[in-house]
Amino acid sequence: MMRKLIIAVFACMAAVPAAAQTRTCSEMSGKLNEFILPPSAAPNDPFGRILGTVRGSLQGATTAFLTSFQPSPNGDVKITVIDTFSTDEGNNLITQGAATWTAVKPGFLAVDLTLVVAGGTGKFRDATGSLHLLGIGNNVGPGTGQFVQEYRGTICLTNQ
Amino acid sequence: MMTKRFFVLASVTAAALCLPAAAHAQTCSDVSGKFNEVIMAQQSAPNDPAGRVVGNVDGSLAGATTAFITSLTPARDGGLSVKTNNAFATLEGNLLFATGSADWTFIRNGYYQVDLTLTVTGGTGKYANATGTIRILGVGDNVGPGTGQFLHEYRGQVCTR
Question: Would the pTM count as exceeding 0.90?
Answer without folding.
Answer: no
